[in-house]
Amino acid sequence: MENVKWWQNAVVYQIYPKSFQDSNHDGIGDLQGIIQRLDYIKQLGVDVIWLNPIYKTMDVDGGYDISDYQAINPNFGTMADFDELVQQAHQRDLKIVMDLVVNHTSDQHDWFKKSRATKTDNAFRDYYIWRDPVNGHEPNNWGSMFSGPAWQYDPQTKQYYLHLFAKEQPDLNWDNPHVRHSVFDMMNWWAAKGIDGFRMDVISMISKPKGLPNAPQTKGALYGDASAVVVNGPHVHDYLREMNQQVLSKYDWMTVGETAGVTVSEAQKYANLNHSELNMVFQFEHMGLDGNPNPALGKWNDQPVALKDLRANLSKWQSTLHGKAWNSLYWNNHDQPRCVSRFGNDRPEYRVYAAKMLAALLHFMQGTPYIYQGEELGMTNTVFHSLDDFRDLESINAYHELVDQAKLVDGPTMLRYLNARSRDNARTPMQWNDQKNAGFSDHEPWLAVNPNYPEINAAQEVADPQSVFNFYRRLIQLRHDLPIITLGDYQLVAGNETDTAIFAYQRHYQNQNLQIIANFTAETVSRHYELPTNKQLLIQNYADDMGDTIRPYEVKVYQYES
Ligand code: TEU
Ligand code: CA
C-alpha cells in the first residue's frame, strides 16, 4: 500500500507472559513457552507480538515494578531465552514489541536504593520525587491508583516519595534530564537487541503538574483523584519529542503510548502523522463508559455499556483522527475484563456470535488492532468466589479500602464488582486444550484456569472453520488484502446515531465501499438499508443472510463499488 507505514497495516497480538504457556512445570508462563506457541500465533496471521514486561521485578504489580531494565525476570527465563525468542519470531516474520515502564521503577531498583540513601550530595536523589511533610502529613491529597495515599514516608531521610501506583513503584522525576538520558540509553540498549518497538506504560503521566496541587476529591472518597491532574502534563510532549529525537527516530519501530486521560485533541499531538512523538496511543474513554452509580467507587461497578455511548465515542475517535493522527483499536488487555463478557454476551447461546460481532465491528475500523491473548478464542471472564481467589493488588487493595475503610460498599456487592471488572479476569491462563489446566501447565497455575476451558480452547477452535479463532484469522487477512480498511474514511450510516440495537458504519476509499452492520443486542430486529444491487457479503457470523432481519449479535459486512 502506497506511503503507509508497516505498523498502519499491522495487527498486534498481546501476550501476558505469566499466563501464556508454562514450559518448565512451575505453573508460571515463560519465554520458552512463548517460543513453543509461535506457530499458533503465526497461524492467526498477526504481524507483531507485544510482550507485557519480562524484566527483573519483585512482581508486586505483574512485572510493572522493574528492578533491572536490562535483565530478564528469572521466572520467565534468561536473556538467552529472550534472544532465542526474538530470533524465532523474526524467522516467522513476527515483530517483537516490548513494554517500556518508565513512569516509575521498583523500589528495589538500584537508582531508588541510591536515591533514598541521603538527601544531599546524592546524584540520584532527584531521580525520584521527594517532598517534606506538610503539617506532619503527605504533601498533598493524591491517592494511589492502587488505593491508599500516593506518598510513602521514608524515615531514613524524613521525606515522602511519590508513587502514583504501589508504594513499591516510586515515580521517576522526568523533569531531571539525567533520568531522561538514562531511559534513552536503556532504550537504545534494547534496540541493539533487535526489538521492533515499545508500548509505553502510563506515558501520559510522566510530566507532573507544577507545584503538585491537590486533586479533586469525590464526596466519600478517602483521597483525591490524582489521575485528574497528572495526565497530559506540562512537558509530556517536550519529553516525547526528545525521546523521538534521541531514540525513536533512529529505528523503523512501532510505538504506542498507554495514555490514560488522553482526549482526541491530545492524541493529535501524541500520535501526529509527522511522527515527531509516537505512532499511536491507547485511549481509555471507551473503557470508562459503563454506568457508574457511585463515582467514589472509581471503576468498580457491574453496569453495562450503553450502545449509544459506545457508538458515539468510537465514531468520535474514528472521524476526528482520520487524516490527522493514528488510532489504536482494542477491546481489552491485561488490565481490562474480557470483552465478550463486558461488551457482548458470554452466555453459551450467544458467546460465539457476540465475540465475532465485536471482532468485526472493531477490525473494520481505521487504526492498528490489538488482540489480547485468548480474545481470538472468545475467552470470557471467570468466576471469583471470594477475595482469596484474586491475585491482583489493584483488586485486593480496592476491596479493603472501599469496603473495610471507606465503608462505601458492602462486601458481597464489591465482590460482584470485582467479578465484573478485576484485571484477574484477563490474567487467567491461556486455554490451549481440554487437558489438565487447559494445557497451560502440568503444575498448579499461579492463578486458577477458567473452568470453561473444556468448551473454549485453541485446539478445538483451530480445527473448527466456524470458530472465533478462524473468524479473527479471516479479519486479519482482509486487513492485509483490502486497502480500504487501512486507508478509508469513516462515517455512521445515516440515522444510526439513535438506533437502540444496531451499530452501522461505512468506510469509503476511491470507488470501494464497506458497510458494517452489527447487532449489539439479544433481540432480533428489522432494519432496512439501501445498498446497491452489486453489493457482496464479505464476512458474517451467521450461516446465511436474512436481509432486513438482523438476529441476536449478528454482524455482516457488505462490500460494493460506486
Ligand atoms: O496501567 C495504567 C493504568 O492506567 C491503570 O491504572 C489501568 O488504567 C487500570 O489498571 C485499569 O483498571 C499500566 C499497566 O497497564 C498496568 O498493568 C500497571 O499496573 C500500571 O500501569 C502501573 O505500571
Ligand atoms: Ca514456567
How many discrete domains? 3
Bound molecules: 1-O-alpha-D-glucopyranosyl-D-fructose, calcium ion
Which structural class fits the helix and strand makeup? Answer: alpha/beta
The shape, in one word, is globular
Low-pLDDT ranges: none
CATH homologous superfamily annotation of the largest domain: Glycosidases
Strand content: 15-25%
Strand tally:
20
| CATH fold description of the largest domain | TIM Barrel
Briefly, what CATH class of the largest domain?
Alpha Beta
In short:
By secondary structure, the chain is an alpha/beta fold.
List the keywords.
562 residues; alpha/beta; TIM Barrel; Oligo-1,6-glucosidase, domain 2; five-stranded antiparallel sheet; binds 1-O-alpha-D-glucopyranosyl-D-fructose; binds calcium ion
Describe this structure in words.
This protein has 562 residues and is α/β, with parallel strands linked by helices. It has three domains: 7-106 and 177-474, Glycosidases (TIM Barrel), CATH 3.20.20; 110-162, Oligo-1,6-glucosidase, domain 2, CATH 3.90.400; 489-561, Immunoglobulin-like (Sandwich). It has helices spanning 31-36, 38-44, 79-91, 110-115, 177-191, 227-230, 236-246, 264-270, 307-321, 339-342, 351-363, 393-405, 411-421, 424-427, 458-463, 468-481, 483-487; strands at residues 12-15, 48-51, 55-57, 66-72, 95-100, 130-131, 151-154, 159-162, 197-200, 254-258, 280-282, 328-329, 368-372, 489-492, 502-509, 512-519, 525-526, 536-540, 549-550, 555-561. The chain has an eight-stranded parallel β-sheet with strand order 11-10-9-5-2-1-13-12, covered by helices on one side. The two termini are 21 Å apart. The model has no long low-confidence stretch (mean pLDDT 98). The structure holds 1-O-alpha-D-glucopyranosyl-D-fructose and calcium ion.
